[in-house]
Amino acid sequence: MRLESITQRTLGLKDHRVEAVESLDGGLAVKVEVRRRRRLPCSACGRRQRVRDRLGARRWRHVPLWGMAVTIVYRPRRVGCDRCGVKVEKIPWANGKSPLAYPLVVVLATWTRLLAWQVVGRLFGVSWSTVRAAVRRAVEFGLSNRDEQAVLYIGVDEISRRRGHVYHTQVYDLSQRRLLWSGEGREAVTLRRFFDEWGPEKTAAIKAFCCDMWNPYADVIAEKAPGALLIFDKFHLVRHLLNAVNDVRKAEMRELEGTEEAQLLKGTRYIWLKNPWNLTDRQRQRLGFLERMNLKINRAYLLKEAFLCLWAYRTRRQAQRYLEKWLWWATHSRLKPIRDFARMLRKRRDGVLAYFRIPLDGGATEAMNNNAKAISHRARGYRTAKTFSLALLHCLGKLPLPQTVHKFA
Questions:
Q1: Which helix (H) or strand (E) is 40 found in, with range?
Q2: Which residue ranges make up each domain of the chain?
Q3: Which residues pair with residue 58 across a beta bridge?
Q4: Among residues 408, 329, 402, which one has the least CA distance to residue 141?
Q5: Residue 310: pLDDT above 90?
Q6: Which CATH fold would you assign to the domain 104-233+364-409?
Q7: Which listed residue, 7, 310, 342, 405, has the most CB atoms within 10 A of its CB?
Q8: How confident is the model at residue 247 (pLDDT cuts 50, 70, 90)?
Q9: Confidence at residue 1, expressed as pLDDT on a 0 to 100 scale
């Protein structure tokens, strides 16, 4: 099979033909021409029109062949469209002014979901900026062609991009476990940008949001999606409670400094924070001994275990009764960190009890956050926020790629 036939088949040409394949600077130059007496589609409306004239030669990078760079050379035609006026033809292997052919975009975009961009560039003999351009084209195509009709449950959380408290807000579709949007910052204006891009019509279809108790997120969700249910993630709630329990332990250690009880409390942090069924035999024995002592940390531990029983209830009414009872215990415990946690919980109890109407939690969100961190670590980080968001959307957004007639990877 000749090189002209191979290139013709991989590009899937119908209105064009490969005239010749020549050697050029150690690579291959594929010269393409229009078949005779063919009407060509308008790039604006797609209707076939008569050819008016042709432009100067343009070049597109194609998938390398046997380690040699392949360049498509073609003089685009202009058509006289009745609706749109004089327009450039719709070129089947490319779109717009991008110098990358669709097959190369698909190949590079496929491999960048598995490997670091720099590694992909070395494998295909292209620069890092060329790989980024291919990913950008793939993401633009995917965002314009993804299905957004079934987005009903949203998870919102932040992820650290680099040291120095540089955060990105992540918006996930919890039903399909995919990333919908990523933006730099975790302020109210950051999440407001998502709602502005998403639009009020699609926002009105969302049934519930799940996030932590970060006030900027909660305020923007209440403002932009008043008809949706706001659910506070139970794992973040438990994390706040565990911090309060640990604060009780540290305060008691300071009070008992220099005593025998302080020595017994040393190294017991995870005994008080772990679930009982996760304790080792040695930790379980030590916990049984410490429980016989009249310690403040023991009261905090019992309140922590009692709070975890909240999630065993099936109905909102039963859970509300138990939560009110637990809040009374906590506010009368004479333990300041536990009292502070209870007061915070009382202000946000509607978001806590919303879980019993739609049982959403942040488990899927945390899992996708871990995947996002793995993508960042694979590339040793990204310098700019736009590139970071681009990489995350490409790998976690489940975006469709442009269709090609031949699979190269």
A1: strand 40-41
A2: 3-99, 104-233+364-409, 236-356
A3: 74
A4: 402
A5: yes
A6: Nucleotidyltransferase; domain 5 (3.30.420)
A7: 342
A8: very high
A9: 52
